[in-house]
Amino acid sequence: MRLGLGLLFLLCSVPAWADGRVVDKVYHPYVQPLEREFEYRFAYQKQAEHPDNNAMAQKLGYGFSIAERMAFEFYVIADRVSPEDYKLSGYELELRWMLTEQGQYSADWGMLFELERQNNSDNYEFTSGLLMEKEFGPTSLTLNGLLVYEWGQSLESELETEFRLQYRYRWLPAVQPAIEFYAGENYRGAGPSMMGVHKFSGLEQLKWEFAVIFAIDASTVNNTLRFALEYEF
């Protein structure tokens, strides 16, 4: 655990922070055997440099486990920057790897790997990182330390970092309030979130998340709203 926390601290202390969409899903380090899922994510950002001060993004994905501790997911991404309409902006491949059994150690560990390609361009982004979750009684602390490498025709090749934190109170399975924090290049944001899960039968369940993230420094996007639905079966 000390080694893992040291790696997370190293990722979070690199001075060059990632300049992409920092507010996104806070990943938990778990993979369920035989899992399959459909996932939908929505994000709204208010940005002063755009005419109507807003940008929106949607991601639709399908994923499944490929091993007892590994899961793969494919996403289609659409973006809208006012006053333009939505357009298909990219594709993403994601691999999650659960490193330890849940409850095996004082904290649970996993890894994340993502490859994103911008549509109709030769720009790419590869993300890798360490995921950690630790329980404190009825609460859980989740940390994501990510390294992001960007390159392409219209991008300068560079290595950057991102950090995501979620502190969650497991009040009820269907209602779990939390606080989230995000950091990236010219970005620092924090705010409340709410999530829950409704189980149907067997492996079938519906997860939901909703968060409102506020700027905590002058250079950050004013407000970000994110919403996600995940249907597992």
Question: Can you walk me through this structure?
Answer:
It contains 1 helix and 12 strands. By secondary structure, it is mainly beta. The chain has a 12-stranded antiparallel barrel with strand order 1-2-3-4-5-6-7-8-9-10-11-12. Strand 10 (187-201) and strand 11 form a beta hairpin. It is globular. It starts with a helix and ends with a strand.
Helical content (DSSP H or I, runs of 4+): under 10%
Report the CATH C-level class: Mainly Beta
Q: Largest sheet at a glance?
A: 12 strands, antiparallel, barrel
Supply the CATH superfamily name.
monomeric porin ompg
Main traits of this protein?
globular, Porin, twelve-stranded antiparallel β-barrel, 12 strands, 233 residues, 61% strand, 1 helix, mainly beta
List the helices and strands and how they pair.
Layout: H1 2-13, E1 36-45, E2 55-67, E3 70-81, E4 87-98, E5 108-118, E6 124-136, E7 139-151, E8 158-169, E9 176-184, E10 187-201, E11 204-215, E12 223-232
Antiparallel strand pairs: 1-2, 1-12, 2-3, 3-4, 4-5, 5-6, 6-7, 7-8, 8-9, 9-10, 10-11, 11-12
Summarize the structure.
By secondary structure, this protein is mainly beta. It has one helix spanning 2-13, and strands at residues 36-45, 55-67, 70-81, 87-98, 108-118, 124-136, 139-151, 158-169, 176-184, 187-201, 204-215, 223-232. The longest helix has 12 residues, at 2-13.
